[in-house]
Amino acid sequence: MSLPAFDLSCRDAVEWLQQLPSESVDLLVTDxxxxxxxxxxxxxxxxxxxxxxASSNDWFRVFPNARFAELFAEVFRVxxxxxxxxxxxxxxxxxxxxxxxxxxxxxxxxxxxxxKKSIGMGYHYRARYEFILFxxxxxxxxxxxxxxxxxxxxxxxxxxxxxxPPAVSEVLINQSTQPGEVVADPFMGxxxxxxxxxxxxxxxxxxxxxxxxxxxxxxxxxxxxxGRLPEALAAGDPPDLxxxxxxxx
Length: 249
Prior knowledge:
The protein is of the alpha/beta class. Helices cover 32% and strands 23% of the residues. A 9-stranded mixed β-sheet has the order 8-4-7-3-2-9-10-1-11, with helices on both faces. Helix 6 links the parallel strand 9 (182-185) and strand 10. The longest helix is centred in the middle third of the chain and has 14 residues, at 91-104.
């Protein structure tokens, strides 16, 4: 019996990783809602959304820097030997995340740059790029040593908050996996990493704490193959993104 193309979950990211078997993932690409987002929103330098008790927006809870140690320990455990890990973050979070990932055993190679091709909001110089921290467990050669460390892809407009274009993840997946291998994202949002993985004939396992995000991701990923959602979320239609975005204005 063949495995489903994707398998989604809806829970805390660390708890989700803890229930995965050790050395069961071939690549992990993720973009947590890092703590410095709150500071940027407070001074109007990034997307401003409706406030809630949990965060400055109703879409995702900020993942605190204090939890990076437990997150990276689980990421290291679930990755197979000789694999890669990519973490999208801003310049401030990079200085917190890098030493914590190295402490659990990852080797840090370098920050890659995602060039968004247009400037966003800002205060001291408006933002046009984001970092992708490149870590390695064991030793794995990139598939193409001729790929540059700047990935150029236009930002997503009017999409899920902080959504990344699948084209960015496609570069990383092409470089660090082979067809049929397993790509994971514990903070998947609306599933852009999963879209990239399925386009490239990899399996995808993903998680997000927001049930609306999981439904949206499931709807997108079904275009590429059959998969599993949590039973409680499988019934009914996915939410309408445009309507939900309007409710957050």
